[in-house]
Amino acid sequence: MNIIVCVKRVPLTQEVDLEIDPSKRDVRSDMLAYVMNEWDNYAIEEAILLKEKLEGTVTAMTIGSEDDEEVLRRCLAMGADKAIRVDPGTLELDSFTISKILAAVIKGLDHDLVLTGVQAEDNNEGAVGIMLAEHLGLAHSAVVVGIEPEGNEATIRVELEGGIDEVSKIGLPAVLSIQTGINEPRYVSIMGIRKAAKKELNVIELGELELSEDDLLTRTTIEEIFLPPETEGAEIIEGDASTIAEEIIRIIKEKGVSI
Fold first, then answer.
1. Does domain 2-208 have CATH number 3.40.50.620?
2. Every domain of the chain and the residues it spans
3. Per-residue pLDDT reduced to its tens digit, 5-43
4. How far is 259 from 254, CA to CA, in rounded Å?
5. CA atoms within 13 A on the CB side of 136
6. Which of 134, 143, 172, 228 has the most CB atoms less than 10 A away?
């Protein structure tokens, strides 16, 4: 089974005071540390587990600069066989252009499964996997928490709301967006990363792909990013149940909510 996994390098924003850059369309990232997107970490692990069970190859792919090869080296250290980086140059990227670029590369590769993370930690859009499947003309399923390939189809388990899972079959090849918790990603040692430096990593320039200007035109425009306004602290309401209920009703009415 040949599996392609799309991964992304994202900034660590937890417990960091984010600053808006001068353009007001992004946050300052020059002082942030970067890691592999959490959902993608589970996707690459699932691909490697399937390879170990069914044989085949795993190819990790990302779009970005030379710095983004860090996550590809991590994928290779985890057990991926090949890695591909597409250099977008100065092109502005959104979910549409990312999916178009990935599809252009994947169409020329042998694949039985294409895996992505459900979403990326930096924008939380969760759109690339679905768009990628549309561009490739493949079946797609999202929030996948279980995969059991057999012949030309796979039994998949999808996480629904309220702790309910849905089990269904999907024809292969297919694009699956992987949810966290599907497995336990393996630890990557420094020695493993060093050994991964000897594995194949190809770089594709954007101009090498047969994409038109319309294909590379962003469909999303960010007008402005801003921090939420500071508000006063929470108001603690004390007293018995009747007193608290009356105070809550008063506050709701003051906010203009009709009861």
1. yes
2. 2-208
3. 999 999 988 778 888 888 888 888 888 889 999 999 999
4. 11
5. 30
6. 143
